[in-house]
Design brief:
4 copies of one chain form a homotetramer. By secondary structure, chain A is mostly helical. Chain A contains 9 helices and no strands. The structure holds a DNA duplex (21 and 21 nucleotides).
Chain lengths: 178, 178, 178, 178
DNA sequence: AATGAATGAGATTTCATTCAT
DNA sequence: TATGAATGAAATCTCATTCAT
């Protein structure tokens, strides 16, 4: 059975309403429902947990991150590819406050999210290994470490003002170099 | 008027009970009260907000951080002093899950917390400037940046396992070098 | 929209629990909730004020008082009707310790209570006027006075023991005669 | 040891403040203390219970009631004495909203209150018996009944407006006649 | 004896989640 | 499937009373 048209409309309305809020995981579901013009029950039917809603909201950003990782694979210069990908990933995480939670959570994900994350992971890993093969990046870090460091970097940047982004990124990238 | 002995006892009991809980800011106030053997009202009287409780719990760690910063000022080797202080600060933040919130929050602090934070800031700043004077640390970062980067580092380490601490610290310290 | 079955069940449970307590307006709401097997919030949802609960508890007695007043209208002998009704009203007020408050309070009533009270008032008034027309009751008292006197009578009887009821009633009825 | 001057002053201040409030037994003791310019503890020291305060406030009225009862004993006409005393007692109870509670409470009284009440009771009883000896009052009522009926009468009058006092009193007095 | 900060039981409110309609 | 009233756990506030100073 295919998804009903009205159900789809409800879903879209809820997501649209959620996008009007700063991402932080603490929207009042009742408020969200009111703003979306649907009942609370409908929100719960579509997104049984906060996590499910967060994931749905991040699906688009996740796709863009996968695209960026794949694009980096085509970049001829390995260190440029790596540097660019880290910068791009940070950019995306800054633009989507819920993305970090989705990336870091090990469970509760939809199949689609899980698969996308694995593909991102694989592509990211390839970019990192290419850079390490060229002695452009410390050999002892793995892709998990890179993700953790990017998340920490995102955290640092959020604590500061907009201007600190490039400086902090430069510190991390310099620290990762051989 | 000085604080009453019984009030002090209540306060200590509540703090002791709170210390038995993993820091995360989500203890049940009722449970806390019961465990401390006091009424809920008493908890609210002593700590009107979650922030007040968090601050009180971090006061000890804050004092240790100030001690560490001052000790670093006596270290003859400027770069060693800086490196050691960053490592020590990270250690303290990892040991006290509420400390970062206290360090980063601009308001709602008790006078004691505010003063201690300012002293930490001053000592930290002196250690940094000494290291920068010796060309041991990038000249474009200031003490605020260092604190943000340590907070990000704490975040990264919490995402990983225990073993990642030294590696991530090494990355940050390397990135900060001239 | 009609009342939900579960809500009605909760309501009934709360009322049943409240009936297990001596009427006096000083039941512990928390206890009431526990005894009724519902949350405190549910009690407050159904009965936002003490007054609302009192009214609901008295609804049955109020209905019986209306029935008594209407029955008195069918009694052929006017003075017997009046005497019987006063006696009956006292009986009901003695059996329901919250009834007097409901009868005397001018506001905060549910529509149902308000209407029933008005009907009681009208029937009572007719019974009184019939008795006055027959010179069986002082012409200068009105139905409000009768209600106030019955409330005072209830008060007197509650101060004494069971045996004083008939005597005090006799005094009032004698005093009301022409 | 005699009472300290400052303690007496405190006591008087508290009573003065309490007299500024409508008697109903539900003054906030903290408010009372503030208005009296003393600490809450002082209020509790002087008047350990609500009852103690009520009694102290009623002491004056109680004395006036005793005076009235004794005066009635000197009235040559027994039925006039009785009627006048009932009217006077009602008057006093209406003027002092806490008096009924003091009169009706069997315990918790100060020795002075207890004695005064007994004297009132004795004098009232004599007035009643004289009236009954003259066949002016129903023989089956005793002094306790009279007090209960006056309390009920007070209650009735409080429910109505000022104008109803004489009517309700007339009803009761008529009902008490042989 | 006087003080009022401190206490805790209980009252009331909030809100995420459930579930009858 | 959609709805939102209903739920109750937990948060928060109030206030009569106690007790350290």
């Amino acid at each position: 059975m295919t998804i009903r048209a009205d159900a789809l409309r409800s879903r879209e309305r809820i997501l649209a309403a959620a996008r009007d809020h700063p991402r932080g995981g603490d929207v009042r579901l009742n408020d969200l429902a009111r703003e979306a013009g649907v009942g609370v029950g409908t929100v719960y039917r579509h997104f049984p947990t906060q996590q499910a809603l967060t994931e749905a909201l991040s699906m688009g950003t996740l796709a863009r991150m996968l695209a960026a990782a794949r694009a980096a694979l085509s970049e001829p210069e390995a260190s440029v590819a790596f540097t660019g990908l880290v910068t791009e990933a940070l950019e995306l995480q800054l633009s989507d406050g819920g993305l970090q939670a989705v990336l870091m959570s090990p469970d509760g994900e939809s199949a689609e999210v899980r698969e996308t994350k694995q593909e991102i992971y694989a592509a990211f890993s390839a970019v990192l290994q290419r850079a390490q093969a060229e002695k452009a990046v410390r050999p002892e870090v793995n892709v998990i470490d890179i993700q953790h460091l990017i998340c920490g970097l995102e955290h640092s940047v959020r604590l500061g003002d907009e201007g600190s982004r490039d400086l902090y990124t430069a510190v991390i990238l310099a620290g990762l170099r051989c």
